[in-house]
Automatic annotation (TrEMBL):
It comes from the Eukaryota. SUPFAM superfamilies: Nucleic acid-binding proteins. InterPro entries: NA-bd_OB-fold, RFA1B/D_OB_1st. This is Replication protein A 70 kDa DNA-binding subunit B/D first OB fold domain-containing protein. Residues 7-107 form the Replication protein A 70 kDa DNA-binding subunit B/D first OB fold domain. It holds the Pfam family DUF223.
Length: 132
């Protein structure tokens, strides 16, 4: 029996054997020119929920050629950690990191959004300006 895919909104740090069906909506490489240190990406699931994913240098050689912005994938097994950096690219409280047993398989899936914008209410923006 096939394992049902997990949803990004249910990621709470309690398990690392996740199976996600996602689209890479943003992909960038961090490092010095000509030599990438790591890949970072934002993935989105069919509900439009997003999470930040990091592929560090030691795993990047394995996955760099297979990761493409806009493509859909089934991804398994990550290290789940708190998304508590000073600069956060997603609102999700956790982020995922590729590990030695991470599996990524490109597959064609319909119904996965290319982008998911979450706009703030205008009143919330005005209220935040008044607090300063």
């Amino acid at each position: 029996m096939a394992h049902i895919a997990d949803k990004i909104k249910t990621i709470d740090g309690s398990k690392e054997t996740l199976k996600l069906v996602v689209r890479i909506t943003e992909l960038w490489f961090v490092g010095t020119p000509g030599r990438s240190k790591q890949a970072e990406m934002i993935i989105v699931d069919s509900d439009g929920d997003q999470i930040h994913v990091v592929c560090k240098q030691d795993k990047l050689k394995t996955w760099k050629m297979n990761l493409k912005e806009g493509c859909t994938y089934v991804m398994h097994n990550f290290r789940v950690s708190m998304n508590d950096e000073q600069y956060r690219v997603c609102d999700h409280p956790y982020k995922l990191t590729f590990i030695g047993v991470t599996v990524v398989r490109q597959c064609e899936f319909d119904g996965l959004p290319f982008k998911n914008y979450r706009f703030a209410n205008f009143s919330d923006v005005v209220a935040s300006l008044l607090v300063c």
